[in-house]
Amino acid sequence: MACAQVPLDEQQVTEAGPLGKERTLPALHPDRTEQRCFVPYKPPPEGGAAAEVEEFLELAKFITEDLEWLLALPHDKFWCQVVFDESLQRCLDSYLHHAPRGLDLAAAPPSPAVADTQRCVHRAVFLTFLRMATHKESKENFLTPAVFGEIIYENFLFDIPKLLDLCVLFGKGNGQLLHKMIENVFAQQPSYYSDLEEAVPTVLHVFDTILEKCGLQCEGAAAMEPLKLNAHKQATAMTMSQQDLVDIILYLCDSSTTIHAFLDIFPAACSSFQSHGFLSRLSSFYESAVGDLENAVRRRSFDEQSLQQDLWRRLSHSCRKMVETSHLLLHHTCLQPILEGRENMQTFAEELLQHFTSFLPEKRFLCDYDEQFPIVEDVGLLQQALPLIDETRTSYLLQGVDSAWDGAGRRRPESRTAERPSWFQPAGADGGAVGGTGGGASSSADSRSELASGGGPGGAAMLDSPRKGNNGAGSSVSGAELESLLSCIRDLLPDLGEGFLLACLQRYNYNSELVINNILEDRLEPGLDSLDRSMPRPSPEDVPSVLDSRSNVFDDDEFDVFRRDQVDMSRIWKGRRKGGDARELLNDKQHVTEQRTRYQAYQTVVDEVVLQPGDDPHAFGPDDYEDEYDDTYDMNQVGANDLDGDSLLSRRPFTVPQVLRRGARAEVEEEEEEEEEEEPLQSNVNRDQFLQDPALLRERAAARRAAMQQRRGVRPERPAAVAGRPRGRGQTPDTVLDRRRKEANKSRVGNHNRRGMADSKRNKGMIPS
Predict the structure, then answer these.
(1) How many CB atoms lie within 10 A of CB 611?
(2) Is residue 13 helix, strand or coil?
(3) ∠502-466-522 over CA atoms, to 5°?
(4) Is 373 helix (H, G, I), strand (E, B) or coil?
């Protein structure tokens, strides 16, 4: 049989041949394939006929049992069956082709049994593809990566259409597994990248086909072909048959959903799609086809109202997926490298702005994209990552987005309007519509009427450009930059005061061009227009001193040099004080003289003072009663009840030692025994004992030690188990470890080191030799 640690493609197996004779074959050989027929898959029945439901349940049961049998095979048998059994590949391909997609499952299944059976088949197919994409299952069961890539590529186990179907069928809830699975397939076989490059034009041909069926002019290679003579007779979305319209919308829904699922699960494919100009083709197709298809679904009469609702739902789903696909392409090819800080960030930012600018003529697509993924947020991210980005270009881009909303006749959601940066002003009189013509004149006229009434900044708002800040918001500038802005304005308008110019700069977010334009056109806001234009620059405010907020041990005392101008320097010296004699210091009785008058006041004690007529009774102090007698212990008869004799006996009564006592203790009554049992253990501790129980003392010491170790977080030591079990019954691992530890450390305690200690004492001269 196969040996371990050898890849499957190099293994050789020995087994009996058709005639019973043993033979040696490679592990991957057609003769090792089991004879089993895998039936193709059929989708669940749309109707609720009992015969159709029974047929589906029986067929799905066969498929589930066969796939579970396949998954239970060992590694070598599994790969033999996968590589050489054609019926298995037909079964898997039929499921990828006919399995219901997400929108198809929106309708409730005919019965719970059908739903459960479909779920079992779905799980078995996914596990089969997952095992087919794994080249190493364990240390013993694996394939050489190069051989694995050749097997799956040459035998068409995986190809680009299969990977697309796998993403759209199993992507929901299994995104990470699918990502690892597809990433491993592309990593082990790089030829799939070239297949992907060849598949992108085919995907683009889908959009051209839909445009051609709808009678619309497509871009790209098909647009260069000459028109046929009967081209004017081609049907449109309004004139084509109902079944053709249904097929086109279903085709568009399936294609857009599949492409989005593949790019979402495998972002590395975005660069391949982008290299073929997929984003520009997608936006152009969206602008050309979506409007006609929406009008056809909305205005045409259908046989059933439910069919019209289903088509509208699928068309809306397709539009959302196309917009999300565009965002995925921009995010992974432009935004992600900028956020990760890769090299050539300026190139990626330029590419992103170029794509946004190319969206400006596509008003419908631009509005739908901005509604789901606001462009102003992406521009804000660019300005945070690259502060030196072209501000005029970003302002032009955002004005074009606003113009697209106005030209499309739609109203921007309030939440999106509130997220506009403070530096951005909508297009005014001089701006017009960017990238299109619809609605430009009316919006310009409205802006002029609003400006005439003083309702906002003038047409010079187009000149506004973002300053450095979060998401492009205006922020204060440094002192040198402010002086440069003032100097630039005063060179053109020298008669204006710096205070007035400073107020204008603060109002217009330090945009010197906007300030100059509004002053020259006399379009300042009322608050600025009422100011004195020769107002000087205000004096800078005094910065509070750091000393006012600091704290020190000398605050508000005689040594606080920060708040006192005069300090007694005679009381301050450095090091040991010099110039004084110790004898003179001791003989200096000046402090006694200063306190003499104070203590003389206590020499005269008068018990009673006779007041003369006209004397103030309060002049001699308050008339409150003051008793200096300390009566604290009057109520406590300290020592009055003590017995005569030795005070030690009063505190500790005499006790006869137990050794000198005669006989046994008399038996007590049952009531006394019950009372003694109810007494707490504390009474034994308080009892005067001649000798305390050593075992009890050891228990208390152990309890104190355990409490201390618990407070310190020390793990308590495990009690030694040296004794162990009786001989012949085996010993526990703890007993063996404790005996080994005791044998190794017994020389440290007891008298096991007597010879060494005796030698040590003899060397020190303690024992005569």
Answers:
(1) 10
(2) strand
(3) 45
(4) coil
Distance CA 447, CA 101 (A): 50
Phi, psi of 24 (to 5 degrees): -105, 125
Give Cβ neighbours of residue 373 (< 8 Å, ≥ 6 apart). Answer: 323, 327
Beta strands in 331-473 (DSSP E): none
Pinpoint the alpha helices (H) of 556-646: 582-587, 590-600
The model scores a pTM over 0.85: no
Report how far residue 186's alpha carbon sits from residue 189's, in angstroms, rounded to the nearest whole number. Answer: 5
- With beta carbons less than 8 A apart as the criterion, state whether 334 and 350 touch: no
DSSP bridge pairs for 14: 24
Contact in structure between 424 and 473 (CB atoms under 8 Å): no
Note the maximum CA span of the chain.
Answer: 154
Tell me the percentage of the chain whose pLDDT exceeds 70: 75
Closest by CA position to 405, among listed 434, 378, 428: 434
Report the chain's C-alpha Rg in angstroms: 49
pLDDT digits (tens, 9 = 90+) for 426-474: 433 333 333 333 333 333 333 333 333 333 333 333 333 333 333 333 3
- Rounded distance, CA 397 to CA 466, Å? 12
In contact, 116 and 56? CB cutoff 8 Å: no
The residue ranges of the chain whose pLDDT is under 70 are 1-4, 105-110, 217-234, 413-476, 541-549, 578-580, 604-607, 609, 617-654, 659, 662-690, 747-752, 769
Phi/psi at 25 (nearest 5 deg)?
A: -130, 155
